[in-house]
Amino acid sequence: MFIRLFVLFLFISGVTGCGKKGPPLPPEAVRPEPPKDFRIRLEPFFAELSFKIPVENIRGQALSRIKAFRIEKRRYPAENPRLTMVQTLKIPFRGKLSEEERFYYRDRNLRPGFCYEYRVSAIKGFRSESDWTPPQKFCWFTPPKTPEGFEIKTLPLHQVFLTWKPVTRDLNDFALPGKPLYRIYRRSSRETRVFPPIPDNAFYDLSVQAGETYCYSVEPLLPYYGTLIPGFRTPEICARP
């Protein structure tokens, strides 16, 4: 009888012990992974920050939600990096992790003559916040004006020649602090191509094919403390060599 009761006790103990879970993990132990692929794209009136929304925590488990993103913004004069001001923004996230891959935020509060550095973290809830992303930086000035006098000529031997007037002033009609560069965009039925920036206000395109229509536009770029600040592109002009 005693043996039967002992065996029954072991069986019940084994059943109740199965599936027993350990103590719950603290929020910081299941915090989200940091956002990935953090990028900054500059436009004439704003900087667009974007990054991949994390879908797993640091243990590799799927996240059920992200509550918000924290953006740290550092600003300092381009000529004196020691005078740094720090601002932190908390941006609510109301989307669904299953439907959105990237998060976008546009910062229009930019001052000429300053440099900006950003980093981002993801917030799941109280005491559950990811590590920071690596920082991204750029310097800002008033963008250059759109090039005027943009013309295109087709030449023998399947060549296209582009010219425009040099840009010397910014969008506020003040003199630029330096000589701009120019980036050529070319669109055809086959592809869209972006050529590397050039310092001249003329461009020979020797890579065209006869009978194909090519449409061009020119984007001014102001080099400023390691950043190429874009202005507005010219309207497209098309040619068929």
UniProtKB/TrEMBL annotation:
It comes from the Bacteria. Residues 31-145 form the Fibronectin type-III domain. InterPro entries: FN3_dom, FN3_sf, Ig-like_fold. SUPFAM superfamilies: Fibronectin type III. This is Fibronectin type III domain protein. It comes from Thermosulfurimonas dismutans.
